[in-house]
Amino acid sequence: MTDLAPAPPPETVQLRAHPGAAALACPLRWRRSARARLVALRIDAASGAVVITLPPEATRRAGLALLRRHAGWVAGRLSALGPALRLAPGAALPIGDRLHAVLHDAGQDDGPARIEGGRILVGGAAETVGPRLRDLLQDEADRRIRPKVRQHARLLGVVPGAVRLKDTRSRWASCAPDGTLAFSWRLVMAPDWVLDYVVAHEVTHLRELNHSARFWAALATLSPHHLAAQAWLRARGPALLRVG
Predict the structure, then answer these.
(1) pLDDT of the residue at 2
(2) Which residue of 20, 24, 133, 213 could cross-link 87, Cys pair, CB 3.0 to 4.6 Å?
(3) 10 Å Cβ neighbour count for 88?
(4) What DSSP assignment string belongs to the chain?
């Protein structure tokens, strides 16, 4: 039977980026992995916590030692995440290159949320606002991504397989050997030129399922702004994982 109990809240450790710096309250989760060979840490952008993975025989002391050795890097990454953004009335949600204010009117019908004049209008009960906003973002992502797939595939002379939307946390998109393209719906909250780059990147994999020189040359013909888009995703992408 699958355990559906929520994950325990992260513990908090005090971390100093360097000697003499003010202590930072660092949310921390532990993960034990039978396949891990080394102690490792990563930032979970969605929860804002540091995740330390331990091999079977490793101790928590080893994990804390690794955390303290990389305290400066961890502090920088946590500060860059910014606050979480709830899908709720009053939020300002980015869609493409524009912020949209979320307005809730319980007296309106309980149909889908809709975009009107730079606003997102949501009716129905208050507890349904979050799911309706999520549905809107997913639908809008689908509406924007599919035409870009067709456009770039036509320019490159390739034939894509199925196009799917997911809520992936480790990558923005992927291309399977059978030509199936998968994209994070959260890309709809990135600027249009960044979304365009991610689509172009995966469509290029339909020709070159690698990152060879031929791949980058082909990608540059579709997305001359790919270096700037990569930099945007590194700097601003984690914030998109904080929406929910």
Answers:
(1) 34
(2) 133
(3) 13
(4) ----PPPPPPEEEEE-SSTTSPPEEEEEEEEE-SS--S-EEEEETTTTEEEEEE-TT--HHHHHHHHHHTHHHHHHHHHHH---B-SSTT-EEEETTEEEEEEE-TTS-SS--EEETTEEEE-S-GGGHHHHHHHHHHHHHHHHHHHHHHHHHHHHT-----EEEE--SS-SEEE-TTS-EEEEGGGGGS-HHHHHHHHHHHHHHTT-SS-SHHHHHHHHHH-TTHHHHHHHHHHHHHHHTTB-
pLDDT at 1: 33
Residue ranges in the chain whose pLDDT is less than 50: 1-6
pLDDT of amino acid 4: 40
Long-range contacts of 94-100 (CB under 8 A, 24+ apart): 94/189, 94/190, 95/137, 95/140, 95/188, 95/189, 96/144, 96/188, 96/190, 96/191, 96/192, 96/195, 97/191, 97/192
Give the type of residue at 198: V
pTM of the model: 0.79
Note the pLDDT of residue 47: 84
The neighbour count for residue 148, using CB atoms within 10 Å, is: 20
The pLDDT value recorded for residue 7 is 55
| pLDDT on residue 8 | 64
Cβ–Cβ under 8 Å, residues 181 and 162: yes
The residue written with tokens 């993975």 in the block is: 53
At residue 167, φ and ψ (nearest 5 deg) are: -115, 65
